[in-house]
């Protein structure tokens, strides 16, 4: 792809927007960020707190430990962390630096300050509103569509910041019109061309950070007792061949992240689990095959953008498990490392989606690591199928002829078809 092609700069903007560091599960961190901005707007700690959130936020916050809180869980803990110790300027690393004293203050805050959590009356899957009160003063901050996309800041009824949400197919809108146009330029043919031709210096710093951060948390997940220890279980049960190592690395990163590990990850499509899934299996295969650093960079460009392209149709949060898209994208990156061309990569993705596209998202929790392992396995199997002359065809279930048609069908399934499933999952989780 020539640098004069408008897609070149668009794809770079997308990568720089999506591949950012975050600490902890991004939904509780988004609440902490929203609360920290509200505290700064109020100018003091509140004497009461109200939180309005969409169902998808509730299901993704309920069962994960918020890092740097002394192993606390839940929306109240996330908000308290942001209010007591948050540095709003750091966005998704808002509670990256917390002292022991501040953790003690969080505990006292949760004991002393009433925090009321309510369902938001919204159709947006990612919707967070935090209102803080201190005497007669109040501050209100509203986030929609993306984890740091503030659409409203208000103090004592006076609007300080207001941004109208944009509407776009597949995502219920992206915050900037230029960003919306960028995502519309994504297609697998363009992604493959870009991955082969991008100037390495344009992506090296970004990908070096992804490799460093995500490899570190995977090592941590394998070294210590986190969650259900899916990464360690895989290695103990099935040995240390490359296929198992690829699944175990991604699963171990999720083990650690879901259980409150205080290491950052580089996310993809707003998700740390997806960021680890698209990168760690590819990194493991690069080590196994002795691929050069440039080849690894190009494979990571491919896997990252392939995942983002799929999620454009589905949206940030839904009842469709994001690990499925990421696992298929990892399969594409692995296929590239192993010498596969464009057709081979497309068939790998389609085969993988045919296998695992029924996995539902029932919130962030330890079992995410097992879903990641299954999705990476499907990505690898998708490659092995096509390498051995086998494939699934258009008309098989939700698959269509041509990869772009299949991705649109999967997006329709995840965004529209599973709306009622999502509501039922949230109702079930609310009863537990």
Automatic annotation (TrEMBL):
Record-annotated Serine dehydratase-like alpha subunit domain positions: 91-426
PANTHER family in the record: UPF0597 PROTEIN YHAM
Lineage per the UniProt record: Bacteria, Bacillati, Bacillota, Clostridia, Lachnospirales
Chain coiled-coil ranges: none
Name used for this protein in its record: UPF0597 protein KTH89_17135
GO MF: L-cysteine desulfhydrase activity
InterPro entries per record: Ser_deHydtase-like_asu (IPR005130), UPF0597 (IPR021144)
Family recorded in the similarity comment: Belongs to the UPF0597 family.
GO terms for biological process, alphabetical: L-cysteine catabolic process to pyruvate
Alphabetical list of HAMAP family matching this protein: UPF0597
Keywords of this entry: Lyase
């Amino acid at each position: 792809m020539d640098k004069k092609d408008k897609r070149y700069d668009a794809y770079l903007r997308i990568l720089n927007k999506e591949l950012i560091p975050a600490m902890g599960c991004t939904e509780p961190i988004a609440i902490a960020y929203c609360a920290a901005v509200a505290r700064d707007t109020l100018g003091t700690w509140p004497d009461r707190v109200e939180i309005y959130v969409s169902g998808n936020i509730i299901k993704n916050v309920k069962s994960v430990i918020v890092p740097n809180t002394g192993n606390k869980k839940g929306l109240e803990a996330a908000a308290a962390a942001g209010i007591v110790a948050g540095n709003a300027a750091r966005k998704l690393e808002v509670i990256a630096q917390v002292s022991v004293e501040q953790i003690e203050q969080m505990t006292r805050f949760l004991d002393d300050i009433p925090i009321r959590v309510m369902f938001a009356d919204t159709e947006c899957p990612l919707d967070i509103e935090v209102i803080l009160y201190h005497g007669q003063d109040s501050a209100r901050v509203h986030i929609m569509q993306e984890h740091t996309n503030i659409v409203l800041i208000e103090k004592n009824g006076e609007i300080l910041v207001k941004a109208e949400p944009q509407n776009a197919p597949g995502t219920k809108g992206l915050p900037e019109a230029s960003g919306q146009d960028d995502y519309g330029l994504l297609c697998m043919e363009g992604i493959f061309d870009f991955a082969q031709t991008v100037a390495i210096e344009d992506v090296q710093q970004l990908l070096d950070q992804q490799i460093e951060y995500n490899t570190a948390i995977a090592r941590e997940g394998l070294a210590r007792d986190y969650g259900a220890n899916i990464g360690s279980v895989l290695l103990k049960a099935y040995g240390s061949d490359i296929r198992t190592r690829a699944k175990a690395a991604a699963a171990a990163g999720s083990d650690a992240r879901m259980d409150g590990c205080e290491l950052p990850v580089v996310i993809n499509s707003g998700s740390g689990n997806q960021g680890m899934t698209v990168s760690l299996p590819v990194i493991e295969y690069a080590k196994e095959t002795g691929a050069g650093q440039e080849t690894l960079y190009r494979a990571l460009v491919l896997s990252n953008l392939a995942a983002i392209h799929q999620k454009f149709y589905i949206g940030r949060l839904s009842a469709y498990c994001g690990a499925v898209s990421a696992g298929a994208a990892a399969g594409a990156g692995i296929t590239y490392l192993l010498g596969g061309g464009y057709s081979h990569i497309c068939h790998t993705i389609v085969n993988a989606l045919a296998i695992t596209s029924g996995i539902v998202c029932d919130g962030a929790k330890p079992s995410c690591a097992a879903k990641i392992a299954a999705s990476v396995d499907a990505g690898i199997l998708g490659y092995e199928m096509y390498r051995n002359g086998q494939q699934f065809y258009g008309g098989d279930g939700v698959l269509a002829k041509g990869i772009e048609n299949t991705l649109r069908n999967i997006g329709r399934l995840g965004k529209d078809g599973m709306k009622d499933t999502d509501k039922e999952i949230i109702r079930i989780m609310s009863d537990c």
